[in-house]
Write a structure and sequence with these properties.
Number of strands: 5
Helix content: 25-40%
Number of helices: 8
Strand order of the largest sheet: 2-1-3-4-5
Radius of gyration: 20 Å
Strand content: 5-15%
Largest sheet: 5 strands, parallel
CATH class: Alpha Beta
Structural class: alpha/beta
CATH superfamily: SGNH hydrolase
C-alpha cells in the first residue's frame, strides 16, 4: 500500500537548501584592514561595498582584516569570524608569512584548513581566494614555492581566485604608502577593481 501522501508516478520533493546569507566577509591582513589609510572607507572592502550598493545586490560587507596577522592567526580566529553565517568568504592571508620567510608548506596547510572549516558552515559560503607573491629578496627557490601555493589551492578546492591581489599596484611608488608595501588611496581603487571583477559573479541578484 502506497503512503497516503505519495502520488503514483511523482517523486517525493526534497526540501530546498536554505538560501545563503547576504553577507560578504573579508578575512585578511593589513592589506584588507586598510592599514595607514586616512579612513577605513578608503580600503578596498569598503570600496567594494559601494559597488554592491550601486548594483542593488543587497549584501552587507564585514571587514575582518587584522594588521600583522599570519595565516596561522587567521585560522585561529576563523571560528569567531564565522559566528555569523556568511554568504561569501574572501580569504586574503599569507602575505605576512611571506614577509617573515615562513615555510610555504605551513602557509598552504593553514589556508587549506581555513577553506575546510568554512565549508563546514551550512550552507557553505562561496569562497574567493586572493593570491599573494613573495618578495624576490627571499631567493628563487622560496619565491617559487610561495607563489605556487595559491594557484594550487585554488585548483584543488575549485574556488574563485585572484592570482595576485596587488597586480598593477605592487612595486609602483605612486600607488603605495611610504613603506612601499601598503597601497595608498589610489592603489586601493585598483585593488577594489581587481577583486570586484572576481567577486561580482559570486553575488546572486
Amino acid at each position: 500500500m502506497l503512503p497516503a501522501l505519495l502520488v503514483v508516478g511523482q517523486a517525493p520533493k526534497n526540501n530546498p537548501a536554505p538560501p545563503l546569507p547576504r553577507v560578504v566577509v573579508f578575512l585578511g591582513t593589513s592589506l584588507t584592514a586598510g592599514y595607514g589609510l586616512p579612513s577605513p572607507e578608503e580600503a578596498f572592502p569598503a570600496l567594494i561595498e559601494g559597488e554592491i550598493g550601486r548594483a542593488h545586490l543587497g549584501y552587507s560587507v564585514v571587514n575582518a582584516g587584522v594588521s600583522g596577522e599570519t595565516s596561522a592567526g587567521a585560522l585561529r580566529r576563523l571560528d569567531w569570524v564565522l559566528r555569523q553565517r556568511v554568504g561569501v568568504l574572501v580569504v586574503e592571508t599569507g602575505a605576512n608569512d611571506g614577509l617573515r620567510g615562513q615555510d610555504p608548506n605551513a602557509t598552504r596547510a593553514n589556508i587549506q584548513a581555513i577553506l575546510d572549516r568554512a565549508r563546514q558552515q551550512s550552507p557553505p559560503p562561496r569562497i574567493l581566494l586572493l593570491g599573494m607573491r613573495a618578495l624576490p629578496n627571499l631567493g628563487q627557490d622560496y619565491t617559487s614555492r610561495f607563489d605556487s601555493l595559491y594557484p594550487a589551492l585554488a585548483r584543488a578546492n575549485k574556488v574563485a581566485f585572484v592570482p595576485f591581489l596587488l597586480e598593477g599596484v605592487g612595486g609602483i611608488p605612486s600607488l603605495n604608502q611610504g613603506d612601499g608595501i601598503h597601497p595608498n588611496a589610489e592603489g586601493e581603487k585598483i585593488l577594489a577593481a581587481t577583486v570586484w571583477k572576481a567577486l561580482r559573479p559570486l553575488l546572486t541578484p
